[in-house]
Amino acid sequence: MKLSGVELRRVRMPLVAPFRTSFGTQTVREVLLIRVVTPGAEGWGECVAMQDPLYSSEYVDAAEHVLRRFLVPALLHVGEVTASSVAVHLAKYKGHRMAKAALEMAVLDAELRTHGQSFGAALGSTRDRVPCGVSVGIMDSIPQLLDVVGGYLDAGYVRIKLKIEPGWDVAPVRAVRERFGDDLLLQVDANTAYTLSDVPQLARLDPFELLLIEQPLDEEDVLGHAELARHIRTPICLDESIVSARSAADAITLGACRIVNIKPGRVGGYLEARRVHDVCAAHGVPVWCGGMLETGLGRAANVALASLPGFTLPGDTSASDRFYRTDITEPFVLESGHLPVPTGPGLGVTPIPELLDEVSTAQEWIGS
Fold first, then answer.
1. Are 217 and 225 contacting, i.e. CB atoms less than 8 angstroms apart?
2. In what order do the strands lie in the sheet with 287-289?
3. Span 268-327, pLDDT tens digits
4. Contact of 265 with 242, CB cutoff 8 Å
5. Residue 174, Cβ density class (10 Å: 0-12 exposed, 13-18 middle, ≥19 buried)
6. pTM assigned to the model
7. Is 263 in the active site?
8. CA 24 to CA 137: how far, in whole Å?
9. CA 20: distance to chain centroid?
């Protein structure tokens, strides 16, 4: 395809409730959207970088800058582009995986719309719906946590993930287990909040038969995770440490994880996410799809990815109303604990113009 131009659009979307993790509290989501225009179609991408460099070194202002200054001009310069060639054309620019992923997503969406093929079909979907879990942030009290978890279970979510940090780990897990029973699919996410000195505390989670503990140690401490795995029974799942198919293979080989959370933005795009899936499947390692508070655009792509055969655990592909009162696309609605995989061309969804305009704060057109 020949790209006619690219639009960068900033949107600001308030969350329905504050979302607190070990690295901070969010009350609003600052999102960078990308619209790629070709002679035959247009495609949308969503950058999952956060407002501040807390989850990773990337943040939304920097992503916008590198796209405007380097990535978009590089792609416009090459002429004919395919989704599979985007990573090759941008490889000389180091890092910035979330920015690259958003641009590749937009190109892939336009390409698939041109050919009338859905994201799911292109990635290798084997299901028409996916089971959904929900991520529950750190609360002010145990009673508040139990009320929130109960509400999500009443809504139909099939798995609960609790955010934890030192001082908020064993007690909330015990309370949830006691209230909702041993059959509840329950896991925890530390977002790198612990060190190897915390092994005795993390081992106290073992009796609760959790599905997994996600990213307990620093993202660069893969060997530390391998050491931790020798001292606890709870399966370790890596998130921030997995930035490519190669890093996934290395972590599995080192014994640093038994489960992998795949976030397309973190690994550089949906095509690399599929490669991570394939590597994990070849090693018999289950995967699940993580979330980054996406709008309906990113949610559509995540649901499609989560319908691949290796995604055997419920992911964080929750319904639109988990985070937003009003999404910018038609909302994703939970049905019996599942979300349907979009079947229309490309993402299968597009922004609703008036809803998009309501939350847009800036936009810029970069022509070829």
1. yes
2. 133-136, 159-163, 186-189, 213-214, 236-238, 259-262, 287-289
3. 999 999 999 999 999 999 999 999 999 999 999 999 999 999 999 999 999 999 999 999
4. no
5. middle
6. 0.95
7. yes
8. 10
9. 16
Helix (H, G, I), strand (E, B) or coil at 33: strand
Query: Residue 355, CB half-sphere, CA atoms under 13 Å: how many?
Result: 14
Q: In the predicted model, is pLDDT for residue 157 greater than 90?
A: yes
The Cα 98–Cα 90 span in angstroms is: 12
Catalytic residue among 2, 92, 100, 263: 263
**Mind listing the pLDDT tens digit for each residue in 61-97?**
999 999 999 999 999 999 899 999 999 999 999 999 9
The answer to whether 165 touches 138, Cβ cutoff 8 Å, is: yes
Count Cβ neighbours within 10 Å for each residue of 200-236 and write b for 16 or more, e otherwise: eebeebeebebbbbbbbbbbebbebbbbbbeebebbb
92 noted as active-site residue: no
Q: What number of helices (H) and strands (E) belong to the chain?
A: 14, 13
Instruction: Pick the catalytic residue from 2, 92, 161, 163.
Output: 163
> Is the separation of the CB atoms in 357 and 10 below 8 Å?
no
pLDDT tens by residue, 130-142: 999 999 999 999 9
